[in-house]
Amino acid sequence: MSILTAENVTFDYVNKFQTVRAVKNITCAFEPGKCYAIVGKSGSGKTTFLSLLAGLELPTEGRIVFQDQDTATRNCDEYRRDHVAVIYQSYNLFPLLTAEENVMYPLKLKKMDRSEAKEIAHRQLQAVGIAPDQFRRYPSQLSGGEQQRVAIARALAAGNAVVLADEPTGNLDIGNSEQVVEILLRLAHEEGRCVIIITHDLEIAALMDEVWMMRDGVLEQGDTEIM
After folding, report:
1. What mean pLDDT is reported for the chain?
2. Using one digit for the tens of pLDDT, what is the confidence trace for 58-113?
3. At 227, is the pLDDT very low, low, confident or very high (cuts 50, 70, 90)?
4. For residues 30 and 47, is the Cβ–Cβ distance under 8 A?
């Protein structure tokens, strides 16, 4: 059964000079326990569509539905805090917070007791391969692969049902990329989360349960063998 759906979704960027239709009449559904890849060239609309799924933007036409409720009728801040975690290529860690504090942050937003939040943060950091002696390091003291794993631990700690990842391996070497993909697959297959990854890497896409291809704002179910 689907947890997140797009129903005839269109999105336009509008300014005083022009209207650009970035997403065109997309209908698709995503299930828990599966890992999806959305692939396509730069400018094809992938990141815009991910923003719509995350509630960062609302469709110009159509609707995004999470657990039978239109995101347009939700408090979008609460939707992202409680239900959808976003992992970015640039990590988006708070530079003045340590690794453990970054992972604790969404738990503090949920008013969780500090000691409980710290316990969860430590558990999730270790689950993604961050050693205890790194918990109190700042992002600048961590490698790119370590920073991305901290970002994933933050998504894990929040317990959100949907994990959206925008080029999560884009800044990583092959070894770190493989570790990150393994963690994301585990989130879907072992923890039952719905994981949606935007990637330009067809080898990574081929490891996912389903692949979707974005071309000029149109999303179609794809096959990495013919892309």
Report:
1. 91
2. 999 999 999 999 999 999 888 988 899 998 888 889 999 999 999 999 899 888 99
3. very low
4. no
Contact in structure between 198 and 44 (CB atoms under 8 Å)? no
Judged by average pLDDT, the poorest of 64-68, 83-87, 134-138, 174-178 is 174-178
The phi, psi pair for 161, rounded to 5°, reads: -70, -25
- pLDDT over 90 percentage in the chain: 67
Nearest to 97 by CA among 164, 151, 177, 171: 151
Q: Burial of 185 by CB count in 10 Å (0-12 exposed, 13-18 middle, 19+ buried)?
A: middle
- Residues in a beta bridge with 20: 13
